């Protein structure tokens, strides 16, 4: 599993729009179609799909 990175401003807005608390999530992977997040505390993955 990759190490998570701190989200950018745009990514924070997407996390908040998905109904998640942005302080609890790190960005594991960012592609054109999805944003894969990893929880800071439980290491669970969550995927936010983007409309392409």
TrEMBL record:
Pfam families: DUF6906. Residues 1-50 form the DUF6906 domain. InterPro entries: DUF6906. This is DUF6906 domain-containing protein. It comes from Paenibacillus agri.
């Amino acid at each position: 599993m990759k190490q998570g990175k701190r989200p950018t401003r745009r990514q924070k807005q997407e996390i908040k729009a998905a109904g998640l608390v942005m302080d609890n999530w790190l960005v594991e992977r960012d592609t054109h179609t999805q944003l894969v997040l990893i929880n800071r505390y439980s290491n669970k993955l969550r995927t936010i799909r983007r409309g392409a």
